């Protein structure tokens, strides 16, 4: 039976400050480091042994992946990093305080930006100094693929090819897989795996630092889902 473990990165510095983060490469907060360490201990206690791990190209997820593997005595396990597992890009909202943004634009508008499946945030222009187009880790991408902002629908559209090309084949080969990524990239993949509706996905929240386990059938449908 294929086994898939999702882990949202531990609490980040901007999570702690209540700021929109997205593709900004912020670090883990001390609490986030401890969350990831504890997640690794739980994986070890559960006896889960990975064959391969996938993560994004953002250090809060990479460090979480490393800590999970280190604290489950599996730091040797091969890792694959991909921008397709990055957090949702929050456009011009990145770096803004969520409470202050709500005070400026209204709670309802900010709630729509944050939770709507298909509403885009205010977009960041490619010419903006903060654009990911200026970051060399994305230099290999067609500039049309560098987002100026994403909703969950777009996040799923860019994560899905990585699922189909990398993660799903590993699972179909009966490998045990770790995906250490972000709240929204994991929610997008969970929507696909679980067949969650556009409306119901808005209610799914994956907590930081808590490994989420899927026991899968041979056709990759979900047999069992639980948190460690």
Automatic annotation (TrEMBL):
Pathway, per record: Carbohydrate degradation; glycolysis; pyruvate from D-glyceraldehyde 3-phosphate: step 3/5
Active site: 9, 87
Record GO terms (molecular function): phosphoglycerate mutase activity
EC number: 5.4.2.11
Annotated site residues (Transition state stabilizer) in this chain: 182
The reaction(s) this protein catalyses: (2R)-2-phosphoglycerate = (2R)-3-phosphoglycerate
InterPro entries: His_Pase_superF_clade-1 (IPR013078), His_PPase_superfam (IPR029033), Phosphogly_mut1 (IPR005952)
SMART domains: PGAM (SM00855)
Superkingdom of this protein's organism: Bacteria
Chain residues that bind substrate: 8-15, 21-22, 60, 87-90, 98, 114-115, 183-184
UniProt signal peptide: none
Keyword terms: Gluconeogenesis, Glycolysis, Isomerase
Functional description taken from the UniProt entry: Catalyzes the interconversion of 2-phosphoglycerate and 3-phosphoglycerate.
Family: Belongs to the phosphoglycerate mutase family. BPG-dependent PGAM subfamily.
Protein name, UniProt field: 2,3-bisphosphoglycerate-dependent phosphoglycerate mutase
UniProt source species: Enterococcus larvae
């Amino acid at each position: 039976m294929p086994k898939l473990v999702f882990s949202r990165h531990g609490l980040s510095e901007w999570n702690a400050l209540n700021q929109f983060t997205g593709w900004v490469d912020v670090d883990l907060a001390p609490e986030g480091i401890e969350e990831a360490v504890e997640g690794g201990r739980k994986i070890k206690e559960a006896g889960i042994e990975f064959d391969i791990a996938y993560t994004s190209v953002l250090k809060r997820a990479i460090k979480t992946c490393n800590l999970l593997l280190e604290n489950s005595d599996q730091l040797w396990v091969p890792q694959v990093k991909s921008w397709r597992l990055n957090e949702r890009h929050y456009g011009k909202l990145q770096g803004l305080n969520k409470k202050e943004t709500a005070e400026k634009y209204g709670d309802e508008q900010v709630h729509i930006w944050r939770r709507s499946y298909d509403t885009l945030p205010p977009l960041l222009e490619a010419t903006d100094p903060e654009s990911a187009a200026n970051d060399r880790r994305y230099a290999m991408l067609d500039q049309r693929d560098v987002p100026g902002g994403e909703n969950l629908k777009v996040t799923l559209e860019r994560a899905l090819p990585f699922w189909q090309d990398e993660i799903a084949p590993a699972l179909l080969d009966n490998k045990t897989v770790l995906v250490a990524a972000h709240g929204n990239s994991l929610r997008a993949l969970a929507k696909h795996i679980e067949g969650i509706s556009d409306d119901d996905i808005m209610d799914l929240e994956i907590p930081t630092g808590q490994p989420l386990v899927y026991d899968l059938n041979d056709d990759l449908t979900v047999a069992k889902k639980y948190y460690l």
